[in-house]
Amino acid sequence: MGTLHQAGLHEIKPHAYRDTPAGLGFALSVIADIQKQGPGAVLWCMTQRHAQEWGRPYGPGLFKAGLDPARVLIVETRTADEAAWALEEGLKSSALIAGLAQTEIKTQLTARRLGLAARAAGTPCFLLTGHGEAKIPGTLTRWRIATEASAHIPFDTGAGFGEGAHFGEGTPGPACWRLSLERSRAGADSAQAGHVQGAQSAAGQTSRAQAAQSAVGQTLREGARFHVQAGHDGPPEKDGLRVVPASSDRAADAGALARGPRTAAS
After folding, report:
1. Which of 5, 23, 84, 85 is positioned for an S-S bond with 1, CB 3.0–4.6 A?
2. Residue 191's beta-bridge partner residues?
3. With b meaning 16 or more CB within 10 Å and e meaning fewer, what string describes 157-177?
4. pTM confidence score
5. Are 3 and 124 in contact (CB under 8 A)?
6. What is the phi-psi region of residue 109: left when phi exceeds 0, alpha when psi lies from -120 to 50, beta otherwise?
7. Residue 207 φ then ψ, to 5°
8. pLDDT tens digits for range 177-233
9. pLDDT tens across 29-57, in order?
10. Is the CATH number of domain 3-145+179-259 3.90.850.10?
């Protein structure tokens, strides 16, 4: 089991603002592999600002990315402090298999509390922070993520967007990322990123990682934003917190996909 599966805080920072979706895709790829290790929920906390800027999670999209949306709990808060509080309380419950937060960690005390809660619960926790924000102290690892051309699919001569490919040809291959491991408690030991292939890198080195194919044969492409859900079936807002079940629209969407596109004749 790789370093990214270890209990504690793992910071994921985009190389630039435009690489933020790539950082999220990398985190979700790792969490998808963690979900396969056993039961438990994933707690995903985000602020309203991040939800408005990058979109809210979309159940069928998470499923295609290899995650089980029914096991993803989404909390949207007004402020960064509320998001950090919700994440800490979730970690303390010991009911989570992984935690994920899209929020700013404003104080070192907040980071220490999250780290202690994650280690005490034996749960890996991923913090997706802004490219220009201060680095979080006390993390097990810190990864700098940049976009990379998608991988080649065998027997598809137009797949991917690498050398020799033409726009509009073939099918985009598995997602790839350019990884730079800036911090690792393991020191010079290599850190392996579980679900991503080729992500072994010593601290300070840069490598290229490729997402493994999910069970449904599809992968999450970096750079693609999530669709925004118009509403939710969860409990009403209370004290600025809103819990949105990612699987709330899963049944309806699955039925629509099974029926296929409607035509004028139908």
Report:
1. 5
2. 201
3. eebbbeeebeeeebebbbbbb
4. 0.67
5. no
6. alpha
7. -145, 170
8. 888 888 887 543 333 333 343 343 444 444 555 554 332 223 333 333 222 222 333
9. 999 999 998 889 999 999 998 888 888 98
10. no
